[in-house]
Amino acid sequence: MSSGRVRTRRAALGLALTVAAATALTGCSALGSDDSNASSSGGGLEKTKIKVAILPTVDTAPLWLAQDGGYFKAEGLEVETVVAASGQAAMTKTVSGETDIAISSYMPFFVAKSTGAADLQLVADATSIAPKSIAIVTTPNSPVKTINDLGGKRIAMTAKNTASDLLAKSLMKDHGVPIDKVNWVPIPFPNVAAALAQGQVDAALLPEPFLSQAAKTAGAIPVIDVNSGATQEFPLSGYGATSKWVKANPKTLAAFQRALQKATSETNKDRSKIEPLLVKYAKIDEATAKLLSLPSFGATLDARRLQRVPDLMLQMGAITTKVDAAAMIAPQATT
């Protein structure tokens, strides 16, 4: 073989190795160069590890199922949950970058949009109000006997412009009860039962499992079921993220949505799948988990249904400008 042919073959081999190396580097770059952004099972996800700010309420049950049932893992995704004191606090964690996604009642998301405080998108549905799943409660020795007694009383809420605030005000307005003289007392859901028992507040709006827990530990009794009037079957909670994060992580978001959709479907088919998770994560006893009233679970967002939330907020003065819910909905994955 001539020296010229040897040089040619060596040059071709060198070129092939260079191309192979470049291809390998390009593949690594596309998946990310560290463990948090790369995984052979991640299917090219921008991030394979994300943090979600949650509330220890029944609303989070499908996410716990997706986590413990391996639905996130099947999508190449690892989800770490960070507990927040309220929906507002959960959203704040996401806006600050502490978490990637947050679950909250829808109200804080729409307040942020209306005021321009944050550029957020809604990425998945969570719950709507169902019969007996959320109620205004009091105790037998409270001066509050009916909803008409709430005027001028001390009512617990998690934070201003959250579900516990807006829904209570909407129900009171429906019944002609003045809300401007109410003493609204901010208390995290886990502490409300004790506040009721100790007489620190006269009433509170509580979702499950805190509703059943308060009945057991503080003798709380319902004043009115929130699933009535303008708030019947009302969209209650969902997941949100910053628009910047949604744009930067479309594959990761779709993986999160698919896993959550599957878990939500399983939850609606068989509640026994989430009862052990309520005991594990919401810290309720097994008997209560079997008896409590569940909300209506959802995963995929519907703009027409969701528009009820900002419309009621505008009516109640929680926001001052109309918000288009459809414009806030991120692309929805299909399974």
What does this structure look like?
By secondary structure, the protein is α/β, with parallel strands linked by helices. The protein folds into 2 domains: 49-130 and 234-328, D-Maltodextrin-Binding Protein, domain 2 (3-Layer(aba) Sandwich), CATH 3.40.190.10; 134-231, D-Maltodextrin-Binding Protein, domain 2, CATH 3.40.190. The chain contains 14 helices and 11 strands. It has helices at 3-31, 61-68, 71-74, 87-95, 106-115, 163-174, 189-197, 210-218, 243-248, 250-269, 275-281, 286-291, 303-306, 308-316; strands at 49-54, 78-83, 101-105, 120-128, 134-138, 154-157, 183-186, 203-207, 221-225, 235-242, 296-297. The chain has a 6-stranded mixed beta sheet. Strands 7-6-8-5-9 form a 5-stranded mixed beta sheet, sandwiched between helices. Strand 6 (154-157), helix 6 (163-174) and strand 7 (183-186) form a beta-alpha-beta unit. Helix 2 (61-68) crosses helix 10 and helix 7 (189-197) packs parallel to helix 8 (210-218). The radius of gyration is 24 Å and the shape is globular. Mean pLDDT is 87; it is low at 1-42.
Task: Bin the strand percentage.
Answer: 15-25%
| Count of distinct strands | 11
CATH class of the largest domain: Alpha Beta
CATH superfamily of the largest domain: Periplasmic binding protein-like II
Biggest β-sheet description: 6 strands, mixed
Which range best describes the helical content: under 10%, 10-25%, 25-40%, 40-55%, 55-70% or over 70%? 40-55%
Strand order of the largest sheet: 2-1-3-10-4-11
**What is the CATH architecture term of the largest domain?**
3-Layer(aba) Sandwich
**CA distance, first residue to last residue:** 59 Å
Shape: globular
**Mean pLDDT score, rounded?**
87
Separate helix tally: 14
- The chain-level structural class is alpha/beta
Radius of gyration: 24 Å
Given as residue ranges, the uncertain stretches (5+ residues, pLDDT < 50) are 1-42
Q: What is the CATH fold-level name of the largest domain?
A: D-Maltodextrin-Binding Protein, domain 2
How many domains, as an integer?
2
- Taken in chain order, the helices and strands follow as HEHHEHEHEEEHEHEHEEHHHHEHH
